[in-house]
Write a sequence for this structure.
C-alpha cells in the first residue's frame, strides 16, 4: 500500500508532534508500506530515512518576549490555522498533487497539530479527496476541551473553527483520533457527524534503548519519581507539592526513605518557585532541558515515571509521553482525571491514577515507595502502544478508504 503523509512537524524536530508523525511513518514503512512524507521541516541532504521526505517551509512567527508580543504571535498563529488560502497550505497542496503524479498514493493522510495541515486536503482534486484520511493527535478546536485549555479566545474562534472542522471531516473519507473521549466530545458538539467514519488509534510508544543507561544516571534515578517533558501552567499541580512535603516529613521522622522527585524539561515558573524549600532540602530537583537520548536514559533509569494532566472533570487527551512510559516496564504515577490514561491504567495495570488531591497523591506515592520492586509496569499496557500493532490499526482503516 502506498501512503503519502502530509504534516507540518516531523524529524529532525524533537517535539511531541514531530516525534509521533515520524514514528507513524517509520511504523508504516516497517509494516511493508511504501511511504512518502511531505512536511514543513527542512530536511538535511544527508538524511538516512528509508523513505522520501520533502518539505515546504512554513511561516516563521519569530520569538516574542513581551506579553503583548506573545499575544500578537498567538493571534497570527490562530488566524493562519484557519486560513484556507494561506501560502503554506496552497504550497503544500500543489506539492501533494505534484508528488502524486508519479507516486499514485492509495491513501493521503493529513496529520495535525496544527489544524492547517488538514486544510491542505480541501485543496486537492476530487479524485485525491476520495483517498484522504485525516488524523487528529489532539481534540480540536480547543473550545471542545475542558478548562483550562478552553479559553475566551477559543470560544470566540469556535464558529469559524467548527465550520472548518466539519468541512474537513465531511470531505475526508476517514477521521482518526487518539481516544474515544475525543470522538464523543466532538460528536456531542456536531451531532450530524458520522460515528462510523471516526476511528481511534493510540500513539506509538518508544521502546527502551538497547543496553543500560550510564551508571551515574542509573545510580541517581533508580528509585526517584521522574517527570519528563514540559510542565506547563495548565498542568501545574500544587497538591503534588503538598504530598511531597508530607513524604519529606515522614522521611525526616524515619518512617520511610523518600527517594526524591525530578523534573526533566521546562517547568512553569510559579510551580518552580513553590518548590523552593523542597529544592533546598534536596528532595525536588529541576534538571532542565536535555537532548532526547538523555531523556530516554533518565526514563529507563527512573524508579517511577510521573505524568501530570490539568485539573479537569474529564480529559480528552492521551499524552504521547504516557505511551512512551508504558513501554519501559516502570510503575506510572498519573495525576489524571477520568479519561484515556486513567482507563488504560485501571484496565491493564502498570501504575495508579489519582486526582489533583494531596491525600490521594500522598497515599499513592507512599504505597509505591513501600512496595519497592514489587510495583512494576504492565506488558498488557505496553502492548497497546507497540509500533507494529498501531501500524496494523492504521492499515485496517486505510483499507476502508475508497
Amino acid at each position: 500500500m502506498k501512503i503519502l503523509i502530509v504534516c507540518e512537524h516531523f524529524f529532525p524536530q524533537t517535539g511531541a508532534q514531530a516525534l509521533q508523525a515520524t514514528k507513524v511513518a517509520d511504523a508504516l514503512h516497517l509494516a511493508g508500506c511504501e511511504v512518502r512524507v511531505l512536511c514543513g521541516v527542512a530536511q538535511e541532504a544527508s538524511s538516512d530515512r528509508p523513505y522520501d521526505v520533502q518539505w515546504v517551509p512554513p511561516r516563521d512567527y519569530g520569538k516574542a518576549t513581551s506579553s503583548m508580543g506573545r499575544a500578537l504571535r498567538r493571534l497570527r498563529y490562530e488566524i493562519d490555522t484557519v486560513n484556507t488560502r494561506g501560502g503554506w497550505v496552497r504550497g503544500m497542496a500543489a506539492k501533494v498533487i505534484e508528488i502524486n503524479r508519479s507516486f499514485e498514493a492509495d491513501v493521503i493522510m493529513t496529520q495535525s497539530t496544527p489544524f492547517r495541515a488538514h486544510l491542505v486536503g480541501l485543496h486537492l482534486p476530487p479524485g485525491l479527496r476520495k483517498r484522504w484520511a485525516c488524523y487528529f493527535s489532539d481534540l480540536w478546536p480547543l473550545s471542545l476541551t475542558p478548562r483550562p485549555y478552553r479559553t475566551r479566545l477559543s470560544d470566540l474562534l469556535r464558529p469559524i473553527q467548527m465550520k472548518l472542522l466539519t468541512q474537513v471531516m465531511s470531505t475526508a473519507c476517514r477521521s482518526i483520533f487518539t481516544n474515544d473521549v475525543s470522538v464523543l466530545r466532538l460528536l456531542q458538539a456536531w451531532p450530524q457527524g458520522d460515528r462510523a467514519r471516526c476511528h481511534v488509534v493510540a500513539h506509538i510508544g518508544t521502546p527502551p534503548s538497547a543496553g543500560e543507561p550510564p551508571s551515574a544516571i542509573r545510580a541517581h534515578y533508580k528509585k526517584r519519581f521522574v517527570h519528563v517533558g514540559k510542565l506547563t501552567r495548565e498542568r501545574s499541580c500544587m497538591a503534588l507539592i503538598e504530598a511531597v512535603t508530607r513524604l519529606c516529613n515522614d522521611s525526616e521522622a524515619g518512617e520511610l526513605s523518600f527517594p526524591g522527585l525530578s523534573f526533566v524539561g521546562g517547568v512553569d515558573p510559579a510551580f518552580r518557585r513553590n518548590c523552593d524549600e523542597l529544592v533546598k532540602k534536596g528532595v525536588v530537583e529541576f534538571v532542565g532541558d536535555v537532548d532526547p537520548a538523555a531523556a530516554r536514559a533518565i526514563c529507563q533509569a527512573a524508579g517511577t515515571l510521573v505524568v501530570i494532566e490539568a485539573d479537569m472533570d474529564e480529559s480528552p487527551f492521551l499524552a504521547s509521553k504516557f505511551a512512551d512510559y508504558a513501554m519501559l516496564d516502570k510503575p506510572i504515577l498519573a495525576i489524571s482525571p477520568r479519561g484515556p490514561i486513567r482507563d488504560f491504567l485501571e484496565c491493564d495495570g502498570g501504575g495508579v491514577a489519582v486526582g489533583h488531591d494531596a491525600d490521594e497523591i500522598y497515599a499513592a506515592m507512599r504505597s509505591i515507595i513501600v512496595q519497592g520492586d514489587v510495583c512494576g509496569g504492565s506488558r498488557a499496557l505496553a502492548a497497546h502502544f507497540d509500533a507494529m500493532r498501531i501500524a496494523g490499526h492504521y492499515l485496517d482503516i486505510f483499507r476502508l478508504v475508497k
Summary: The chain has two domains: 2-204+387-400, 215-384. The first helix runs from residue 16 to 30.
